[in-house]
Structures are given as structure tokens and as C-alpha cells.
Amino acid sequence: MNISFQEGIISSDGSRYSGFVDNVTGAFHGYGVCEFADGGRYEGSWAYGRKQGWGIWTFAADDVLGQVEYVGGMWEDELHGYGRMTYNDGTMYDGGWCRGLRSGWGHYTEVDYGQYIGGWSNDQANGYALRIRANGSRYEGGYKDAKREGYGSQAWADGSTYEGAWKNDTMEIGV
């Protein structure tokens, strides 16, 4: 492979890149920094013009999802592997990603709502988890598609409790 370091490459969309480039294809390849035309910035590994490997992606101030910064693994321009995403309201997710979606084990913290520590699949709470709400209530047990499912125990802030089966986020009393 024939690569070289180049500084100040400006793309057709106005983004500016400094880093290693494949001299044959012109693609970003290796370590580099790209300042996007929308105000976002990515610093990290590239492979054939795509974000791939480890990097820090700072999103534009007007990001529609409220994303501020992602630090972690990338695969073909998508969040992939372990990473930490912070949002403009202070919410944070620290855990596994698969092709841009939360997946595997993760710790999700919402500033005024509480935290979820457990399994994720397709960007939703799935599997075993512990959910602690800001008001002091807590649930430990199964989740399916972001709803309590299967066996679990719930303790509410007022001291009342329930331990047993859950279906579609509803207690199955007597089951």
C-alpha cells in the first residue's frame, strides 16, 4: 500500500481532512482528523475512506438526536464494538454497539430519570438488567424490547414490592 500524510484536504462538501491517505485511491486511510462542514469532527482510524477502528466523533451542535460525543469503536462509518456516547442533556450510554445500535452489555444513565445496567439488542433494553430510577424505585429482572418481561423483582419508592412474572411491562399476579 502506498500511503502518505496530507494536510488540509478539502472535500466537495466543504469538510477538511488532515491525515494519512491512500495515494492510489485518494481515500483517507490510517490515522486522521476530519472537520466536517456541519461543524462535527472525527479524529481516529480510517480504512479506505470510512471511519474504522478507534476514534472520537464530536457531533455538530444541531445534531437531531442530541448526540454530543462518541468515543469508541467504529466499523464502516458506524458505531461498533465498545464505546461511550454522551448527549446534550447529560444522558450517557457506555457499552456495546453493533452497526450503530446499542447491543450487548451497557450502562445507560439519564440525568433526571435514573440508570439501566444490563443487556441491549437492536438499540433496546433486552435481557437481564438492573433499572434504578431517580425516585429510588428499582427493578431487577428480564427485559424484552424495552419492557419488563419474564421473572423480575420491583421495589417502588414507597416501599411496596412485587416479585414474580412480568408480561409486556405488566405484573402477572397469580401466575
Q: Strand portion, in percent? A: over 45%
CATH class of the domain at 89-175 reads: Mainly Beta
Mean pLDDT: 95
Output the CATH topology of the domain at 89-175.
Histone H3 K4-specific methyltransferase SET7/9 N-terminal domain
Structural class: mainly beta
CATH architecture of the domain at 89-175: Single Sheet
CATH superfamily of the domain at 89-175: Histone H3 K4-specific methyltransferase SET7/9 N-terminal domain
According to DSSP, the number of beta strands is: 15
Strand order of the largest sheet: 1-2-3-4-5-6-7-8-9-10-11-12-13-14-15
Separation of the first and last Cα atoms: 64 Å
Model description:
With 175 residues, the protein is mainly β. It has a domain at 89-175: Single Sheet (Histone H3 K4-specific methyltransferase SET7/9 N-terminal domain). It contains no helices and 15 strands. A 15-stranded antiparallel beta sheet has the order 1-2-3-4-5-6-7-8-9-10-11-12-13-14-15, with no helix packed on it. The mean pLDDT is 95.
Output the keywords.
67% strand, 175 residues, mainly beta, 15-stranded antiparallel sheet, Histone H3 K4-specific methyltransferase SET7/9 N-terminal domain, single chain, 15 strands
Tell me briefly what this model is.
With 175 residues, this protein is an all-beta fold. Helix content is 0%, strand content 67%.
